[in-house]
Design brief:
Strand order of the largest sheet: 4-3-2-5-6
Largest sheet: 5 strands, mixed
Length: 217
């Protein structure tokens, strides 16, 4: 929601008052840099003080990956990529394809939620992976979740949405992302602030040849 002129005037008045307050320069030059260097304090401060709206306006503590670079990558919206039941090759291919898409669109940061421990490929791209307990383990009753697999995944994903403040949750299958989700990621990029400085990293990866032409940026 865009602030009204009256709200903007009040914000500017408060900002001027804060800048004149004793200890402002100390907080700006000493305290704030230390908070930014501490991941725990940064996450706490963000949750308490950051707004909950505005694509590209909120700095969310999460690795951005090697596909993009620039001073504002931490302001890109975090998008979850949920896929279960994939084999190892399909899960690794999904990570590769999403990172290529990220370099082309520069509109999001991926958080992979998989039941395959594809740590090698996620480390190579420096992207975050949240691992789900496989359905076969939950079905054996050894995980301690009485609600079964579907309830376990729902609760786990709900916690991740809250923790990472996800903008959207993409569902992927053996063939990768749905075409509608690719279009949505492109639309998110159109809503980002024009001054956002995010660039594709070098060398720029190429799109996989099997991605339909209509889904290419």
């Amino acid at each position: 929601m865009t602030p009204s002129p009256e709200q903007r005037r009040r914000q500017q008045t408060v900002a001027r008052w804060v800048k004149r307050a004793p200890g402002y320069r100390l907080a700006l030059e000493e305290v704030l840099p230390r908070v930014r260097r501490n991941a725990t304090l940064s996450d706490f401060a963000w949750r308490v003080f950051a707004p909950r709206h505005g694509a590209g306006q909120v700095d969310v503590p999460l690795r951005s990956g090697r596909a993009v670079t620039g001073p504002d990558v931490s302001r890109l919206p975090v998008v979850g990529v949920l896929a279960t039941g994939l084999d190892q090759a399909a899960a690794e291919r999904l990570v590769e394809d999403v990172c290529v898409l990220q370099a082309d669109l520069r509109s999001f940061r991926p958080l992979f939620v998989l039941d395959r421990p594809v740590f090698a490929v996620t480390r190579r791209h420096d992207v975050a992976l949240e691992l789900l307990v496989p359905e076969t383990v939950v079905a054996r009753g050894t995980h301690g979740d009485p609600g079964g697999w579907d309830d376990y995944v729902a609760r786990r994903v709900a916690g991740l949405i809250d923790h990472y403040q996800l903008w959207h949750l993409l569902r992927a299958g053996p063939d990768g992302l749905d075409a509608a989700d690719v279009r949505l990621l492109r639309a998110v990029g159109e809503r980002l602030p024009e001054e956002l400085d995010v660039r594709p990293a070098e060398p720029v990866p190429t799109l996989p040849p099997d991605l339909p032409a209509k889904d290419r940026p």
